[in-house]
Design goal:
71 residues; mainly alpha; 2 helices; rod-shaped
């Protein structure tokens, strides 16, 4: 599954968790799945950040680039 699909799935889980008629067991299972997805998404974003920083470093003095943060 790619990052965009994981983000969409996490959004779907969040919407389901906001539902008032969700049984507790189902809510806990969705929550666990959401945490696993969030962990995977964060890792993918961290990897992307490292790749971008590598490219930026290799092109230093070629472009003017402003730093960014995931937070």
């Amino acid at each position: 599954m790619n990052l965009e699909q994981e983000l969409k799935q996490l959004e779907d889980i969040a919407k389901k968790l906001e539902s008032d008629d969700l049984p507790l067991d189902a809510a806990i299972e969705l929550f666990e799945n959401g945490i696993a997805l969030a962990t995977s998404i964060r890792a993918a974003l961290s990897e992307a950040k490292i790749r971008i920083e590598t490219v930026v470093e290799s092109t230093r003095d070629t472009f003017t680039i402003e730093p960014f943060d995931l937070e």
